[in-house]
Amino acid sequence: MAGEHMTARQFVGKEIRLAREAKGLSRVELAKKFPVSESLVRWWESGRTAPGEQCVGKLITILDLPEMLQHVLDDLACNEVAPEWLGKWLAVEEKATTLLTFEPLVVPGLLQTEDYARAVLRLGKESPLDLEGKVNDRLGRQRVLAREEPPLYHAILDEAAITRPVGSPQIMCDQLMHVADQAEQREMIIVQVIPFRVGAHAGFAGGAIVLASFDGAEVAYVDNALRGDVIEKSEDVMVIRRLWQKLSAKALSEDESALLIREAARKWAT
Prior knowledge:
Layout: H1 8-22, H2 27-32, H3 38-46, H4 53-63, H5 67-77, H6 86-95, E1 98-103, H7 114-122, H8 128-141, E2 152-158, H9 160-163, H10 169-185, E3 189-194, E4 209-214, E5 217-223, E6 228-231, H11 234-250, H12 254-269
Parallel strand pairs: 1-2, 2-3
Antiparallel strand pairs: 1-4, 4-5, 5-6
Helix pairs in contact: 1-3, 1-5, 5-6, 7-8, 10-12
C-alpha cells in the first residue's frame, strides 16, 4: 500500500499477511486452523474487516504476533477506534534503524520521565485506570532505545518544550535533566534545541513529526490536532525530511543545546 495513508485495519491486515508468509502458510492453510473461510482471511489481509474476538487469540498464537500488534487487534475486535498511529507507528519504531523527530511543544515520548508522561497524558482527562495504562504504554515504547542495537535517535525540540510548565517545577527539572543525561551518556541519542531567538521557523505552524528508516525504506509520522498520519509515499516523505533538515540547521549544536537544557532545568529547580 505504498503511496497511501493506511487505516489501522489495513495496517494490521498487511502485518497479518507478512506474518503468515513468514510462517510459510497459505491463506487456505491458515483458514483451516480456525476454521474459517479462505475468503475471510483474504478480507483480514486486505483490511476490509478485522478478525473477530473469537479469532484474535488463536491468530496471535499461530502467527506469533508481536505484543504491539496484539493490542491493536484487541481494540479492532472490540470495535474500538484505535488511534491512527497506534498500530502503524509502533511497528515502525520497533524495527527502525534511525528515528528523526521534531517536537514543538513537549519533550518527545521516547525521552519522557514517568512523572512528566503522566502530567502530559493527564491533559486528556483519562480515567485513572486508562491514564496509568497509557503511561505504561509510553514508557514501554522506550525499550526501543535500549535495544542491543538501538536506532540512531535524533530529536529536535523547540525551546518552548523546555520552558512551558508541564506538571510541577520538580517534574520539569527532573525531565530536563533526564533529557540532557540521555543525550550525554548514550551515543545513539542526539538532542538539539531551536532557541526562541531564531523566531518563526519551518515547524512553527505544524505539529510533531518523526521520520523512521528501516529495511531500506523511510516513512514519516505527522501529528495534528485530530489524529496522526503515517506517510509512506516517497515524495511526501522527502518533503518531511527536508523540513526536518531545515529545523536541524536552525537548531543549536548538541553541546549548546545541552547547556541550554541544563540551564532551564536549574531555573525550574529554584
